[in-house]
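Standup notes, structure subgroup. Blocker cleared on the MU-OXO-diiron input:
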Amino acid sequence: AAQDGMSSPSLGFKPVAVSAADNVVVPEGYRVQSFIPWGTPISGDMPAFTQNASGEDQARQVGSHHDGMHFFPLNGSSTDGLLVLNHEYVEPRFLHAAASGLALDRNGFPQHEDGSRDTDQVIKEMNAHGITLVRIRQGEGGEWEVVQDALNRRVTAQTPMQLSGPVAGTDHVKTKYSPEGTMTRGTLNNCAHGVTPWNTYLAAEENWAGYFANADADIDRRQARYGIETRETGRYQWHRADREDDMFARFDASSKGASAADDFRNEPHAFGWMVEIDPMAPGADPVKRTHLGRFAHEGVIFAPAVEGQPVVAYSGDDARFEYIYKFVSRQPYQAATADGSLLDEGTLYVAKFNEDGSGEWLALAPGQNGLTPANGFADLADILVNTRSAADVAGATKMDRPEWGAVDPVTGQVYFTLTNNTRREEGDEHPANPRANNNFGHIIRWQEEGSHAGERFQWDLFVIAGDHADSRDLAGHSLDNDNIFSSPDGLWIDPDRRVWIQTDISESVMNTGIFEVFGNNQMLVANPETGEIKRFLTGPVGQEITGVVTTPDQRTMFVNVQHPGATTTEGDFATGNFTSHWPEGGSAIPRSATLIITREDGGIVGA
Ligand code: FEO
Ligand code: CA
Ligand code: CA
Ligand code: CA
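Run returned:
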């Protein structure tokens, strides 16, 4: 139902076809170029990209596996600003030149015969993670370029960070590095992001658990509920760098010392948070805001801030049968003074979707919804460190892998992608997650009752993704050649209310079997009123499309291409016969990069 003054955004382009080609396709009348691929120099002595670049070089270059992203204009400009983007993880077989002569483990990480890892290679992996902040400017000819600037900066898996909010200073996070429990080092597996009403950047820590080893006989729920089991090693084996240094040793969380202040048994508890970075303060430590909860944070989306009202932020936990959360600040938003301290005091809620289309927010706070000492939750810090367990006890609704969220700036409706869940069994369907063996995913949305800070809402499904037969749009029709898609992940609503949808079909199944019909991962755009959806872009082979934002004038769009060539097989790595050579082509190794998309007539992208 249209409200007064509400515009329905135009989707004024001809949709592109699905594609399995190793290139990027945009609609007629549009241009696209690749920009700042992994390894592009941004600071210091500007070390040029080579596959042989050192670990320290990598800290002055753009990281790998581009993901969530925002453009912070300088002085409101649409041609000059700071591009800030996450780097989710690394593919070691592309990150390191093959010439080191070391054997590769089953995940492709080079290691010595005794199982130790080369220290510089580990440093390079750590520095390829994190966040890039880089000033970019559009020249007279329309081309964008990197500007060497004091704001250019890399935040990595080594960067010192503050802990803030209820968990800071508690026993949960005391380590040999920070016996007071107030600091930690680095951020890991930064997937999507958020932008606060006071214009800082939040990077989400998603699949951080895979970085830790813990050989203790008993793993408590602060680790086990997040996927850390008794094991000598994790995927990255950073603790096996061949140097005695806490920077590496901390990834072994086994109890080795007399107390927590002597070892790193608590190191994993300093991960799983949202990390605030002030892009305009390059000297300031990033801050982990613990009141937003600890889980596999995909990202965060803020409701539009209203003077005198609480700040509200939504975040999904991307794992099968996990939950959607929201944080409501205790103090009201006041534009003149707002800062990150608003995120340190408030209430964390988890969503319960009722079968009748209503929903409620369950507070994860001491004494509420069963979160009592008798049930094993000592206090607020204990609830937050164990957010998943608290949500279990509260009785939240188990979702099909919550990924990105977005808020319609006019209606206030909140959208979330639920990417897929092949482990949902027949009999466990729920109207909010209606398919058993959910291969293709769906998008849910809701309208809060009263304000965003309210405790009740009404929800519906915006689209059930899938092929021609197994899908449903808002009007109740099946998707067609112009818009079939699978595995919605990235999501963004532009100022004109276009709903941009990005897909992440896993490289393990893309372009095979039931997924062949969708081709490569892609980006579509939807009209939130009519539910019309059109395919806007297809990406190269093996990648996912993730991260999207425009300049304030909406004439330039930035989109990230993550992990091109991820479908390359073991044998193909050995011969250099990668499935993708994007963006450079020829025999080049594939590199994650940012796309710059414009219209030939200079118009608004998507209109
Ligand atoms: Fe990193 Fe949930 O995608
Ligand atoms: Ca990803
Ligand atoms: Ca994602
Ligand atoms: Ca995903």
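Discussed briefly. The first strand starts at residue 30 and ends at 35.
Next: hand off to the docking folks.
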